[in-house]
TrEMBL record:
<keyword id="KW-0853">WD repeat</keyword>
<dbReference type="GO" id="GO:0006364">
    <property type="term" value="P:rRNA processing"/>
</dbReference>
<keyword id="KW-0539">Nucleus</keyword>
<feature type="repeat" description="WD">
    <location>
        <begin position="53"/>
        <end position="95"/>
    </location>
</feature>
<feature type="domain" description="WD repeat-containing protein 75 second beta-propeller">
    <location>
        <begin position="342"/>
        <end position="661"/>
    </location>
</feature>
<dbReference type="InterPro" id="IPR057644">
    <property type="entry name" value="Beta-prop_WDR75_2nd"/>
</dbReference>
<protein>
    <submittedName>
        <fullName>WD repeat domain 75</fullName>
    </submittedName>
</protein>
<feature type="region of interest" description="Disordered">
    <location>
        <begin position="760"/>
        <end position="804"/>
    </location>
</feature>
<dbReference type="GO" id="GO:0045943">
    <property type="term" value="P:positive regulation of transcription by RNA polymerase I"/>
</dbReference>
<feature type="repeat" description="WD">
    <location>
        <begin position="246"/>
        <end position="277"/>
    </location>
</feature>
<dbReference type="InterPro" id="IPR011047">
    <property type="entry name" value="Quinoprotein_ADH-like_sf"/>
</dbReference>
<dbReference type="InterPro" id="IPR053826">
    <property type="entry name" value="WDR75"/>
</dbReference>
<keyword id="KW-0698">rRNA processing</keyword>
<keyword id="KW-0677">Repeat</keyword>
<dbReference type="InterPro" id="IPR015943">
    <property type="entry name" value="WD40/YVTN_repeat-like_dom_sf"/>
</dbReference>
<dbReference type="InterPro" id="IPR001680">
    <property type="entry name" value="WD40_rpt"/>
</dbReference>
<keyword id="KW-0804">Transcription</keyword>
């Protein structure tokens, strides 16, 4: 196999952007955060993804700004390297090889050329003891350098990044673990340890959860599991230390952060509220509530103008210093699990799966951004352990994306299972789905499968359930309603066996339903049972029809570790193979199928065509655990690979989710090179910072550019729209609560932008009069003899009629016309 055909598994999107504390650049224009094996760069004003910094081969565990150069960042990873990046251009400047897995990184302006990292005390990942070491970065011209000068600072520290903090501009460093606080002074080269009692009644509620040091004064703020915040002072002496206690959080304090000047302390926890403590007035505090999910990290920009909070639902909220949310960067929400499978929205090509509790999230795989959430349950979610609430367990789209079907369940202890089937219609006006029909208790037991018919002639939904039946739901049109509603059209069964799965053929002419060990094939047009298919022992786990040239095949997996293929033309078993297939997925754009198999605690992948005995691609030990959810997503731009092993990636891309909720996909080296080249086209604002140099030369340069543009582009001299009109000022500067209705303001605003016809005609007439006057003046100056001969004008001597003004203008134009080309022609 040639090199460009190599296939590798990558994290294309959906990485955890809340894994580590984000970083805001000095000018507050960009936000950087660890995202899987790369560092993502976002715009703080537009929320858009700018580009990513790729180079690490394992999970990125920390990102910090370079104190000596505000256009550079350090990143550390579990691959044992620290990398220096130019984040504006996305260029890797240098790689420092540490040789140990790194769990967090810290820098201080006072310690130039040194980074502080947390590494295991033993040279293997499974060590439970960690130490904070100072790494002296060597100065070398090589891009890849081995950093060998390491010195231990603190032993037995927590690998959590919020457990270590620099204080008083780098004079000391504080670390917390369990019930102990340790402070190390660099000047004295001495450390002090302070311990708290575990508490007689509340167990280990006094345990430290996070720490943050005051940037200007000797003060350390620590968060605790009981929701308290302690401010430590006089800790440079072992016995004379003091602390004061602040308490608002009812749960554990997850994160603490001082502002750059130390005037305020920010805290967050499970309450989804950002608490703003005033440092000089400890009893005074402000709140920013309802941020949507538990706060895990807080970061502040170096100039203090922006705050940002990371949340447990994989979200970063950007907040202005006036405590106002200005932007939200939402990643793929990863809850406790995925019950709906992975689905592709036919309209937006977005990945659809479970999001927030009771919601479906629409996630763009190409932009790595959540598009929106759809509230399915439409009930207030109560965050309380042991409370049974509705969960979305099934979802399906029709072929055109006009309809969405969802199933929600709630099982109470000692009570019957509650099931709701909901049908949603796509509304083009709101660009979202609107609830059309709700069916309470569509089945008497749990729904095991749900599919729309792909046939364009009818809109039909089929559901299978453990109540021994499958049902067909049909959209009925009624003249008294604007849109039809759904009703049950057919109820089917087979010898009181429980149906576990179903599948439609590509044209919708056949429906296959698996009743335990029997496969039944039905005609949806007449609901006639056409045939039953036999197979080796074991209940049918999954069914899937072939596509395109392989549409005559039906594939199924069983609980007895068998993968079977039936020929529908002969109604016989074509072939079978012993495989423990946990998931079978068909590519809707080709004949290819993907089978994930479980073996020895890991998953293997086989990509094949039902008509060929040899697989197109296979990979062993894909990931640990079983793969339960996967989907083929259509490509925006088709690949043109001719290699046999990579042709299955030309039209679609295979995505799957592991047991650790990581979204992975497959990519070729050619595709990686193309993405890397396109990522270098930065979406950077062209505005220039107002510096003294710009004030001297910027104005002159701008005038030159305007002149050059006016010469090259005649349309640049068109009439400018009115600036500073009363309507615009009223619209932008008046408080919203006193403004008139939007319809009134809109009409007023549009009229202010229009140029009236009368004024345009007047300007045109004035221009014509001025041009006539200039022509007359130029004639008088060009030929003074005309004034002498005016006495014998031919109109007076011979009685010729007088000329009109229009005829005189035409004669002047003929007179001024250049006839030199005619004389040169006669001379030749």
């Amino acid at each position: 196999m040639v090199e460009h055909a190599e296939i590798r598994m990558v994290r294309r999107g959906g990485s955890k952007i809340n894994f580590r504390e984000p970083v805001i650049t000095n000018d507050s224009r960009f936000l950087l955060c660890a995202a899987g094996e790369s560092v993502n760069v976002y715009s703080t004003s537009t929320e858009e993804f700018v580009h990513d910094l790729q180079g690490h081969t394992d999970l990125v565990t920390g990102v910090v700004l370079n104190p000596s150069n505000h256009l550079q960042v350090y990143s550390c990873s579990a691959d044992g390297t620290v990398r220096l990046w130019d984040f504006m251009d996305g260029i890797l400047i240098k790689t420092f090889i540490i040789g140990y897995p790194i769990y967090s990184i810290y820098v201080s302006e006072k310690h130039g050329g040194v980074v502080f990292v947390v590494v295991p005390m033993a040279n293997y990942k499974s060590s439970e003891l960690f130490q904070l070491v100072a790494v002296h970065l060597p100065r070398s011209g090589d891009q890849e350098v081995e950093a060998r000068e390491l010195s231990a600072v603190l032993c037995d520290v927590s690998p959590h990044p919020g457990a270590v903090s620099f204080g008083r501009e780098g004079e000391y460093i504080a670390a917390t673990k369990g019930l102990q606080l340790e402070v190390f002074f660099f000047k004295k080269q001495k450390s002090y340890r302070f311990s708290l009692k575990s508490g007689m009644k509340k167990g280990v509620k006094n345990a430290f959860t996070c720490v943050s040091c005051h940037p200007k004064e000797d003060c350390i703020a620590t968060g605790h599991a009981d929701g308290k915040i302690r401010l430590w002072r006089n800790f440079n002496q072992k016995k004379e230390y003091t602390y004061t206690t602040l308490h608002w959080h009812h749960g554990a304090v997850n994160t603490l952060c001082f502002t750059p000047e130390g005037t305020n302390l920010l805290s967050g926890g499970i309450e989804s509220v950002l608490v703003h403590w005033h440092y000089t007035q400890e009893n005074q505090k402000d709140f920013l509530p309802r941020l949507g999910a538990a706060i895990t990290h807080i970061a502040v920009s170096p100039d203090g103008s922006l705050f940002c909070t990371s949340h447990s639902d994989n979200k970063i909220t950007i907040i202005q210093s006036c405590v106002k949310v200005s932007a939200i960067i939402q990643g793929l929400v990863k809850g406790d699990g995925v019950w709906t499978d992975l689905i592709i929205d036919p309209r937006s090509k977005a990945l659809v799966l479970n999001g927030k509790p009771g919601h479906l999230q629409f996630y763009s795989l190409h932009r790595d951004k959540q598009l929106y959430n759809l509230d399915i349950v439409q009930q207030e979610y109560i965050n309380e352990e042991g409370l049974d609430q509705f969960e979305v367990v099934k979802a399906a789209f029709d072929a055109r994306g006009d309809w969405l079907a969802t199933v929600e369940e709630r099982r109470k202890k000692g009570a019957e299972l509650e099931i709701n089937l909901k049908l949603w219609a796509y509304d083009k006006l709101t660009q979202s789905f609107v609830l059309n029909t709700t069916v309470t208790a569509p089945h008497e037991d749990r729904i095991t499968g749900m599919f729309f018919s792909p046939s364009p002639e009818t809109t039909m939904l089929v559901t299978t359930s453990l109540d021994d039946h499958f049902k067909a739901w049909l959209l009925a049109d009624h003249s008294d309603t604007k849109e039809g509603f759904w009703s049950c059209d057919f109820v089917g069964g087979y010898h009181l066996l429980k149906p576990g799965c179903c599948s439609y053929s590509a044209d919708g002419s056949l429906l296959a339903v698996g009743f335990q060990e029997v496969v039944t094939v039905w005609s949806p047009a007449s609901w006639e049972l056409l045939t039953t298919l036999s197979q080796p022992p074991g209940a049918i786990r999954d069914l899937c029809f072939g596509r395109l040239s392989c549409s005559k095949y039906l594939l199924g997996t069983s609980t007895k570790n068998q993968l079977c293929c039936w020929n529908l033309l002969t109604c016989s078993l074509e072939w079978s193979t012993p495989m423990d297939v946990s998931l079978l997925q068909a590519d809707p754009l080709s004949e290819n199928m993907a089978a994930f198999c479980s073996q020895s605690g890991s998953s293997d992948l086989f990509v094949f065509k039902p008509s060929e005995p040899r697989p197109l691609y296979s990979q062993k030990a894909l990931c640990t655990g079983k793969v339960q959810h996967a989907v083929f997503a259509p490509r925006d731009q088709m690949l043109e690979s001719c290699e046999e092993r990579t042709q299955w990636l030309n039209r679609s891309q295979l995505y799957f989710i592991t047991q650790d909720m990581d979204l992975l996909t497959f990519s070729t080296k050619t595709e990686e090179d193309r993405l890397l080249a396109s990522s270098k086209q930065l979406m950077v604002d062209d505005s220039v910072a107002v510096t003294p140099f710009y004030l001297l030369l910027g104005k002159h340069r701008r005038q030159q550019l305007e002149k050059q543009e006016a010469l090259t582009n005649p349309m640049a001299e068109r009439t400018q729209l009115p600036q500073g009109s009363i309507a615009i000022k009223e619209l932008l500067h008046t408080p919203a609560h006193v403004l008139p209705s939007a319809s009134f303001l809109c009409a007023m605003f549009v009229r202010s932008l229009l140029v009236s016809r009368s004024s345009a005609r007047e300007e045109k007439a004035e221009e014509e009069m001025e041009s006539e006057k200039e022509e007359e003046d130029s004639e008088g100056e060009a030929d003074p003899r005309l004034g002498e001969s005016a006495a014998w004008a031919p109109s007076e001597e011979f009685g010729a009629p007088a000329l009109t003004k229009a005829q005189e203008r035409e004669l002047r134009k003929v007179k001024t016309f250049d006839h030199s080309w005619l004389s040169s022609l006669l001379d030749s």
